[in-house]
Structure formats: C-alpha cells, structure tokens
Write a structure and sequence with these properties.
- The chain is mainly β and 213 residues long.
- It has a single domain, classed as TolB, C-terminal domain (Neuraminidase, 6 Propeller).
- Helices cover 4% and strands 42% of the residues.
- It has one helix spanning 29-37; strands at residues 14-17, 20-23, 44-49, 56-60, 63-67, 75-76, 88-94, 101-106, 111-116, 124-125, 132-138, 143-150, 153-160, 172-176, 182-187, 194-198, 210-212.
- The strands form 5 sheets. It has a 4-stranded antiparallel beta sheet with strand order 3-4-5-6, with no helix packed on it.
- The longest helix has 9 residues, at 29-37.
- The radius of gyration is 17 Å and the shape is globular.
Length: 213
C-alpha cells in the first residue's frame, strides 16, 4: 500500500463566469477580471492545456474538442466508426509529447478510457472492465493513472498504453486500493508523485474527498 500525505489549498486554473468557461491565471486578480470580460466558450467543461500551451482540449456538449486558447480553430478529437452509439466524452488529458489525448467515453454501458490523436481519428479503446473508468492522467513515460469504479467504490489503476499488441487493451495494474474512494489522479510533471482526491480520514478527522498525494 502506498503512503499518502494530505495537501493544502489548490490554485484555480479556470473560472466559471456568466455563460461558460473563462481562462484565468492562478491567483491573479487582474487576469481573472480580464477573463470575466472575455467571450466565454458555452457549455464547456474539463479544460486541459496541451504541453506546448498552443491548444486547449475541452468536453463541449458531450464531445472532446481542441481549440486555440481564444476559442478559434475548434476541432473534434474522436472520429467514431459508423454505427457507433452516441458517446458521452469527458476528462481529456494530453500525453507529455502532445501527440495523443486520452479521455473517458460512455457508449451506453459505462465509461471506458480511449486515446486518439489531437487532430482526429478513430479512438483506440484502452479499458474494458465493468463499471466506470475516469480521470486519466499521463506519466512522462506514456503510462496512464486513472480512477476505476467497481462495486460502488473508486480506486486508482495504471496502464501502459504502449504495452500491448495492436488491438489488444493493455494490462491493468492496481496503483492504489484502500477502503476509501480515490479519484481525480494528477501525475506530477516528473512522474514521481500522484495527487488525488480521497474520502479517507486523516488524524484530524478530515478527508471528505480532500486532496492527497
């Protein structure tokens, strides 16, 4: 079992203003005010910057799109094969090299993880377990840490995206499994640590889905 430390306050990377998502610099009042005045992207959620900062991936009306930071040049990511059921797409996450985006999609039987090129194309399915898989976060070496729900409990799992034969989902390994719920993993830039939200209580009695690492 991995040890965990409870974290303190977190800086906001985006603000929700009238009508949608606005960009804002963490802790910068002037930037937040400018963001409030900017034209919003309506009905967007789950924003994620590309590694080079040139584009943002968002879930927009249940579909993953990428766009420039000012909202121009929007493009859908997933090009589903013909006759695929309507998908609800969430939680985009860029690979460290910016060449792939992982995301969660529900095609009618729960959320699974997929990966696709930012420029579009047929998604590659990564998970096939019962329940839900959400919140992918890439390591620098191409693995993905994510949250999996089975039997009404969330735990953290890890897969090596390139560690299987073409067309075969990669093996799944347990990253963190406790009696508590663990969700929303975020891998550090150097890949050495993972922050996550947990319902586990610490010595002070806190732990109602607070951040840990």
């Amino acid at each position: 079992m991995r040890s965990a430390l409870r974290l303190g306050g977190l800086a906001a990377l985006a603000t929700l203003g009238a009508g949608g998502l606005h960009l804002a610099r963490p802790g910068a009042l002037q930037g937040a005010l400018q963001a409030q005045a900017a034209a919003p992207v309506i009905a967007a959620r789950d924003p994620a910057w590309s590694p080079d900062g040139a584009r943002i991936a968002v879930s927009l009306l249940d579909q993953i799109w990428t766009m420039q930071p000012d909202g121009r040049d929007p493009a859908p990511v997933a090009g589903w094969p013909r006759n695929t059921p309507p998908a609800v797409e969430r939680d985009p996450a860029w690979a460290a090299d910016g060449r792939r985006i992982a995301f969660a999609a529900d095609l009618g039987s729960g959320f699974d993880l997929y990966v696709a090129a930012p420029g579009g194309g047929a998604p590659q399915r990564l998970t096939m377990a019962p329940g839900d898989e959400r919140d992918p976060s890439w390591t620098p070496d191409g693995r993905i840490v994510y949250a999996q729900r089975t039997r009404n409990q969330w735990g953290l799992m890890v897969i090596n995206v390139d560690g299987s034969q073409p067309g075969v989902p990669p093996p799944v390994h347990i990253f963190l499994d406790t009696p508590a719920d663990e969700q929303h993993p975020a891998v550090s830039p150097d890949g050495a640590r993972v922050a996550y939200a947990s319902s586990q209580q610490d010595e002070s009695g806190g732990g109602e889905h607070d951040p840990w690492e």
